[in-house]
Amino acid sequence: MKLSVLSEELSEKRLIGDAEVTSLCTDSRLAGEGDLFFCFRGTRADAHDFAEEAAARGASLVCERELPLPVPQLIVPDGREAMTFLAAGFYGHPERQLRFAGVTGTNGKTTTCHLLSAVLGEAGESVGLIGTLGAKYGGISVPPDLTTPDPVSLFSLLADMRKDGVGTVVMEVSAHALALGKVKPIRFDVGVFTNLTRDHLDFFGDMEEYGAAKKLLFLPKRCRFGVYNGDDPFTRQLLSFETPHMLYGLDSPADAFALTEEESAEGSKLLLNLNDELIATRLCLPGRHNILNALAAACAARALGAEAEDISRGLSSVKSVEGRLERVAHFRGADIFVDFAHTPDGLKKALSCLKELCEGKLVLVFGCGGNRDGGKRALMGETAAALCDFAVITSDNPRFEDPCAIISQIEEGYRRVSKEYVTVEEREKGIAYALSLLGEGDILLIAGKGGETYQEIMGIKFDYNDKATVGKLIGEMS
User: Fold this and answer.
1) Residue 448 and residue 454: Cα distance in Å, rounded?
2) CB burial class (10 A; 0-12, 13-18, 19+) of residue 42?
3) Which of 252, 284, 317 is the last residue of a domain?
4) How far apart are CA 351 and CA 286, in angstroms?
5) Burial of 406 (0-12, 13-18, 19+ CB in 10 A)
């Protein structure tokens, strides 16, 4: 495709020269002849600084200012936004030929997407799933990168899904993706809001800006139908839009709610009421928060045309979601769970659920990520201390921060409530210590990383997984 033709996707631009574009590129080290390299100012670097390398390798440029380089250049006001629309155009606008369900919120996105995907599958849909755990469609799995992939990867993936016969895409839509315009060309048939609690303030600055990003999904021009958590106060702001919607909840008056007939570590027996349509189902995921996730998925599926029996079968078919309050082992009479909880609210929900089910002591292993919102660390400590009987405070993904400094900030909050804890910097050793404490009726929650397959330390991602570590340690201790 000629750059001049591709540039027609943009209303505001200036083209210097022309070239045949055969692929899109965001890494100057991988650029080559026929590539189109995107330059924009990022949060940590300015891609314009790498344009010379990309040009030397034969790439044309999309940039926010004219550069003194002898290659074709497409000058745009915002390189990041231009990348989104150019990627959609380059891959043939797959978003115009697919149905979309987008799920946003601080917690619950991954589980809600998996439940919704399962229901739509029962309804006979060919579904593509995109989120924190990667992407899946047909028999194909794509490894995880970001919750919502960057535009080049996203629209390439959507094009592949379309070619494979996918009809509906269920995707997690992060606040970052919304704020950075990654999904601007997509009109969502259904948008789901799960909740809004503290997270990502290192990027957004305050909760107002964080919430403003989430709201972008539900603008009438972006979303045909909204599914909102009526128990979350932020939903009141979403109701100001003219987007047709449905409310779900357990505590507030809502269009959809659930009656719990049985509840255990294995899940719940539920009777869902969706606008007076009763649906009996069994949810294999424990916890009140997962009942809310199931309601969100059921409402979205109904809006997309799924029948009651599809919803019942689909919800009950999901036996677990990787790293989401996942029961991974039984050891010395104790149950061991792994969960992605990495916010005060997420940790509170996971611990509250397990505390109700725990007949012995509730033990927790957790930490906080480095180079992220440091203000939540003491809050995480307070939350943990209020709900667990004993904690091992350890490393998560310290990234470029000192792990001991992060642990110290968590301790500040924990000590305000309890002194029942130890600190163990190395995560595997921390888990081993927690396992040594367990007895009959106890529960161990290992929180923060969920299904992640790495631990990031000083810019290096080392192979690591909580579930695999538990299996290895139990084998050694047995």
Assistant:
1) 12
2) exposed
3) 317
4) 11
5) buried
Clarify whether residues 332 and 457 are in a common domain. yes
Does residue 194 share a domain with residue 339? no
> How many other C-beta atoms can be found within 10 angstroms of the C-beta atom of residue 27?
13
What is the token pair recorded at 16? Answer: 């210097």
How many independent structural domains does the chain possess?
3
DSSP code at position 94: G
CATH of the domain at 244: 3.40.1190.10
- Does 129 share its domain with 82? no
Assess whether 100 and 215 both reside in one domain: yes
Q: Where in the sequence is the domain holding 231, given as residue range(s)?
A: 94-317
Burial group, residue 244, by CB count within 10 angstroms (0-12, 13-18, 19+): exposed
Residue 160 identity (one-letter amino acid): D
| C-alpha distance from residue 447 to each of 40, 82, 129, 350 (Å) | 36, 38, 24, 9
Q: Which CATH number belongs to the domain containing residue 459 in this structure?
A: 3.90.190.20
* DSSP calls for 11-44: SS-EEES--B--EEES-GGG--TTEEEE--B-SS
Tens of pLDDT, residue by residue, the chain (478 residues):
999 999 999 999 999 999 999 999 999 999 999 999 999 987 678 999 999 999 999 999 999 999 999 999 999 999 999 999 999 999 999 999 999 999 999 999 999 999 999 999 999 999 999 999 999 999 999 998 889 999 999 999 999 999 999 999 999 999 999 999 999 999 999 999 999 999 999 999 999 999 999 999 999 999 999 999 999 999 999 999 989 999 999 999 999 999 999 988 889 999 999 999 999 999 999 999 999 999 999 999 999 999 999 999 999 999 999 999 999 999 999 999 999 999 999 999 999 999 999 999 999 999 999 999 999 999 999 999 999 999 999 999 999 999 999 999 999 999 999 999 999 999 999 999 999 999 999 999 999 999 999 999 998 999 999 999 999 999 999 8
